[in-house]
Every structure is written in C-alpha cells, then in structure tokens.
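Figure 2 data, in text form.
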Amino acid sequence: MLVLVAPGQGAQTPGFLTPWLDLPGAADRLAAWSEAIDLDLAHYGTKADADEIRDTAVAQPLLVAAGLLSASALGAVTPGAVAGHSVGEITAAAYAGVLDDTAALRLVRTRGLAMAEAAAVTETGMAALLGGEPEVVLPHLEKLGLTPANINGAGQIVAAGTAEQIAALVEDKPEGTRKVVPLKVAGAFHTHHMQPAVAKLAAAAEGLAPADPALAYVSNKDGQVVTTGADVVARLVGQVANPVRWDLCMETFGKLGVTGLLEVCPGGTLTGLAKRALPGVATLALKTPDDLEKAAEFVAEHAAEQTA
C-alpha cells in the first residue's frame, strides 16, 4: 500500500523549483497560481535567497505549489492514503480532492500571511530535539515554558516558544537528548502564539466548498483518518495553534498496512523520519524530476500491493 506525504515549512531551499518548471505545463500552472494569490511563485522558487523564502508568507504557498506540481508529474496515481506535515496538510487535502488546487493555494496564502502577522507580535522560534525519551523531554520543555509543537516520532520532538526560551533550551537540553537544532522558521508555529491566525483562517475557510476526501486522509491532529471535507477543513484551521502529531500519523500508516511512503517535493524530511519509525516500509523522496522514473517504479510496486 502506498501513502503519499507532503513536507512542512523548513523543507524549502533556494532554487528548488527550477528543474520542475522545465516540465510540460508546469510554468503555466505556476503562473496561474501566482496570479490567483498575488505572489510570484516562480521568482521565489527559482531566484530568491534563503532569507526571502524563510518568510512564512512566502514559504507556505511555495511548498504547497511545489508539492502539487511534483505530485501531478507522477501522472495518474491513486495512493492508499495521503497526509502532510503542518502546511503539507493543505497539499494533501488538494491531492485527496477536498480542495481544488487554486482554493488550496488561496487558503495557504491566507494561512501564511496570518501566521507571519502573529509571529511578528513576539520574537519566537522553534528547535528540533534529536534523541531523548518523551517522558523526559516533555516535562523539561514544560519547565522552560516551551510547547512540544511537533511530536514527530523517531526520537524527534520540535519545541516552540520565545527566542529566550529557545536559547535556554540550547543551553539546558533534556537528559538523553543528543542535539538541539534551531529551525529555519520565523515563528512558534502550532502554539498559542499562533492563536490570532486561527480566526483569520476560519474566516477564509467559510468561503470554501470542500468535497469529502476521495482517498484516506490522515490528520495531524490525532493521526485519525478523516472522512468528510468539512472535518478536514476544520482541522486545517485549528491545527495552526495546536501540536502536529506526526508520530500518530505514522502509527496509522502502520495500521493501514502501508508498504511504501512517497514524499513529494521538496522531499527528504518525512522519509527520514519514516526510515527510523517504520522499519520495513520502503521510502522515496521526490527532490528533482530526475527522481520521477524511480518514483514511477515505486508507485507501480506499492500501489499494486494495495489492490492485490
């Protein structure tokens, strides 16, 4: 069984969209999306530097656009399930048919702007803790006033809070944690610091007409498979200020019988987690169009298994 997954913020790198725009129709699609959301996606995906694409208002629509472009380049693929990490959930919602591509881009544009505005109120950030047991890490974060914003499984928890709290964590990491790595994001996402963005996203969501997922859609909220479009959208709105439970998503992949996990562009982060948390599950990350031939073979193998 095949699961298609989409990465979250921080996966972007300068110029990562450049090779994808050589594919037939890709530049035209990106231009249409850019006009719809008033953001030059081609510029940011090909010419902008790391600081420019670190901007939340830019990074989020750029990642969704990249995910949709690379997924469409796979051709007619019907995975057994879809999921996305944080903003990648919007990519997954579009792939599952809950939102059309333009509606997804408009929603993520609102999300990025609202979260950037919320992040500007207080200097905040995020840091990944590598290693350590949750029963040790979580109380330590609470002691420092930090929120476990992403519980990713595979020995990785991402903490979020003020710049001072992140600095304190770097100096005083939990026992058993190998390393604390500050992330290239511009705010404490999935925490109470993002609460002002929830209302704006909820207002934008009122204008949507979501369809029920055509595929099994696994939610970051609790790792559950969501069956109605209205519930998917409600979860997308609330998730902005609540922790990402990617560990529970991967548990669900295991229960569903997933044999292959394919991560759309810019792939790498989620396949890395899966290699550690889902032994025996094959993984493949789409980084450039050069990976499409391998991806076609991967899809054929694992999609065939879900119908066997």
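Caption note: The radius of gyration is 18 Å.
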